[in-house]
Amino acid sequence: MLAPFCQYFYTFADMRKLVLHFIGIAGLIASASCGRDSRHSGTSTPQHITRLEQTIKNGIGGDSLARRGLTLLLHGFGFPDAGRDDTLLAHYTDSLRVSPAFTFFEPDVTAFYPDLDALSADLGHIRSVWDYGPFPDNFYTAVSPYTQSIITYGNSDLIVVLNHYLGRNYKAYESFPSWILELKTSDRIAYDVIHAIISTNYPLPERPVSLVNRMVYEGAVITAQMESIDSASICVAIGWTDDQLKWARDNERSVWQFLAANDMIYSDSPTLADRIINPSPSTSFITPDSPGSLGKYIGYMIVRSYLDNHKDVHIADFLRDSIYLRPTVLQESGYRP
Q1: Which pTM was predicted?
Q2: Does the structure show a pLDDT above 50 at 62?
C-alpha cells in the first residue's frame, strides 16, 4: 500500500526544512559503544536498483522497470492516469524534470550517490537472509518533494527517496537539529527499508494498543534489523551517539520504574506512545537529558529477554504469530531491568 503523501509541493525555502518521515528505531549491544555487529558472513547477489532520478533526467527509453517505477511514483504524486499511455507518461516525466524539487536536489543526489553499489550489496544481503514475510521484487530510487523517505507499494515495489539521505553536512539540512541529522545518513537506508517492509507485512492494528505492546513491536523490528543487516550498528539504527547509548544503559531501570510508577506501561494513549517512541531531541517527560525514542530501546530489551527465555522462538515467529500483541507478552518475557 502506498502510504499517504503530503498534499503540496515545497518552495525552495521549504526544501531546506524537509524532515525525514520518521521511522525511528532503537536498540542495544553488550558494550556502551556504537560498534558494529559483524556476525554475518558469506556472499549474496547484489539487489538490482532502478534509478528513477536518472530516468527522469535522461528520458524513459525502453526500460520496463523504469516505466513501472515512474508510473508508481507519479501515482503517489497525484497522477493516477500516468500509466494510461506512453504519451501521457512522457508528459508527466518532462514535468518532473523541470520541477523545483528535481532541479534543486537531483544534482546533489547524483554527486553524493555516483553509484549505488553499497546499497545494492546491503539489500542483496538482506534478501539472502530475509525471513519476515514477502520481500519486494523491485527497488527504485527517486527524488521527491515530500517528507516520506521510503515508499512501499504493496509487497512488490519499494522506492528510496535519496534526497532524504544526503549526509549530516548537506547544505540544505544546515538548519536541522542534530537529532534529525543523525537520521539523514546513507547508513540509515537499510534500516528504514526493513522497518517499512515489516510495517507492511505485519502492520499494527488500527485500534489502540498498550504502550508495552507498541514498544515490544518496535523492539521486534529492531531485532529483525540487527539480524538482517551485515555489520549492524545500534547507533546508526536509532540515531544515537555513544553517549546517548550509555545514558540509556545506565538509566534503563529508573526509566522503567518511572513508567511503572506513573501507570504508563499498559496505557493505550497514542499520544503517550508517540512521545516515548518517535524520534525527538529527548524523552523530555521522563527527563530532559534523556535521548529520544527510549520506548524503542525498552521494547528491544523486552524482546531480547523474551527470546532469551524462549529458545524455540525466533524473531520471525515473534512477528508472524503476533506475539508482540499478546497482553501477557511482558510477563512471558521475564524482563526485569
Answers
A1: 0.87
A2: yes
